[in-house]
Design brief:
Layout lengths: L1 H10 L5 H13 L3 H14 L4 H13 L3 H14 L3 H13 L3 H14 L3 H14 L2 H14 L4 H13 L3 H14 L4 H9 L8 H14 L4 H16 L4 H17 L4 H13 L3 H14 L4 H13 L3 H17 L2
Length: 329
């Protein structure tokens, strides 16, 4: 397709609609929207009724921060074509301009006109951000029934369920999303963060995180989340080898991303559990150096310094902890 557009740029007369439109599309494919806009504008002046060109221009305006110009083009299109995708795009424009009520109406109109996977996902996601989790959950439940093999809808439903306090259901939905699309990193990210909220599905979460670790061995977050799930199992009475594997994964995560403060914190907790105070202190210090607002690391450092006969350092870390706690709402 890219070569066809490039050829069209050369084939069509230089000042024709087709030439301007093809040049604009070529820049869009190169992800250079600012360069595409002047050509799409010229094409629109020649043929303002061409739907594809005007739609692409409206989208380019929106994605480059010109929401008001995008609204003008979308309004012109809607006057001639009452399509669901235009209402969805107008919802994006309204959202960009913080017109929350108008955006909600446009997303809902799009979903009613065409309950496609995209329209339902956009509506559910918007409601979750601006209207609360219960209405969003209703949309996602309906959407999943309509598109049972959609991983992104399962992720949306899982987040809505978690936010509504339905932890078992949330983890089950996220596990299902991973099964549907093991490459969907959104499912991993949220599943990794809620790995410990559902004891009922703990083993299933660990199994899926292990699968991600085998698929993406070079991803720091994958190794970190898998380590967290193994650490929970180790603390629940699993074998020492499980704890050792978690330690290796945390070291690997830090090697892949030296700025991952949370991995240093977790290593500190692991070493503190083993009564390896020197190692724990080193990891806690690394964590607070990377992220000064890690209150738990400061608190742990204070305790360890006090236990190891360093009261001045203990007092300093305790003050840092208390200052962070005072800032917490």
């Amino acid at each position: 397709m890219r070569y066809a557009i490039a050829a069209a740029v050369l084939f069509f007369p230089a000042q024709s609609f087709q030439s301007f439109h093809a040049q604009g599309e070529l820049y869009i494919q190169r992800h250079n929207l600012k360069a595409a806009i002047p050509y799409l504008e010229k094409a629109r002046r020649i043929d303002p009724d061409n739907y594809d060109n005007s739609y692409d221009l409206a989208l380019a305006y929106l994605q480059t921060g010109a929401a008001s110009k995008s609204r003008e083009v979308v309004a012109g299109l809607l006057a001639r074509n009452d399509r669901a995708e235009l209402h969805n795009l107008l919802g994006d424009v309204d959202a960009a301009e913080n017109r929350i009520d108008e955006a909600a109406r446009q997303y809902e109109t799009a979903a009613r006109m065409d309950p496609s996977e995209k329209n339902l996902f956009d509506l559910g996601s918007f409601l979750m951000l601006h209207r609360g989790f219960e209405p969003a959950l209703k949309v996602f439940e309906f959407a999943v029934q309509r598109y049972p093999k959609s991983a992104q809808l399962r992720v949306g439903m899982g987040i809505a369920q978690y936010s509504s306090g339905e932890y078992d259901a949330a983890v089950e939905s996220l596990c299902h999303a991973v099964d549907l699309d093991p490459k969907d990193m959104r499912a991993l990210d949220f599943l990794g963060k809620v790995y410990d909220v559902s004891p009922r599905f703990a083993d299933e979460v660990t199994a899926r995180l292990a699968r991600f670790a085998s698929l993406y061995p070079g991803d720091a977050s994958v190794n970190y989340y898998y380590a967290l799930s193994l650490r929970k199992r180790a603390l629940s009475g699993a074998s020492a080898s499980t704890d050792g594997k978690a330690e290796a994964l945390l070291h690997k995560a830090i090697k892949l991303n030296p700025n991952l403060a949370e991995a240093h914190l977790e290593l500190g907790l692991l070493y503190e559990d083993r009564m390896q105070d020197a190692k724990a202190i080193s990891e806690y210090r690394a964590a607070t150096k990377l992220r000064a607002n890690l209150s738990n690391a400061h608190y742990r450092l204070s305790r360890l310094y006090q236990r190891n006969g360093q009261p001045a350092l203990a007092k300093k870390e305790l003050h840092a902890f208390e200052a962070l706690q005072a800032k917490t709402p």
